[in-house]
Design brief:
The chain contains 4 helices and no strands. By secondary structure, it is mainly alpha-helical.
């Protein structure tokens, strides 16, 4: 679904870049909503650099390789959107519960 949209809008030459940027932003949001703790700036920079490396590798495995092998890519971006929505709902409900107590 999202793959077809990106292919129609940007073409094959920008496929990896668009997916990397979108997936990195969604992964950073998911990290911040679900797993982030208060850490120093240097540690935070290291975490986000490692997150970028991980998203780069996942893009190769889940998007580029299946399209090279003439199969449809796996729904990585769609999964990250669902993860962000669920974590956002969880954080909102946690906020409401803490506010009422």
């Amino acid at each position: 679904m999202f793959f077809d949209f990106v292919m129609n809008q940007f073409g094959e030459e920008h496929l990896f870049t668009v997916f990397f940027i979108v997936n990195y932003i969604l992964a950073a949001i998911a990290y911040k909503l679900g797993f982030a703790r208060k850490i120093s700036i240097l540690k935070s920079i290291i975490v986000y650099i490692l997150l970028a490396i991980g998203v780069f590798l996942l893009n190769i495995m889940f998007i580029v390789l299946p399209t090279v092998w003439a199969r449809s890519p796996l729904p990585m971006t769609e999964s990250l959107v669902i993860i962000c929505l669920i974590l956002g709902i969880y954080r909102f409900r946690l906020y409401l519960q803490r506010k009422s107590n």
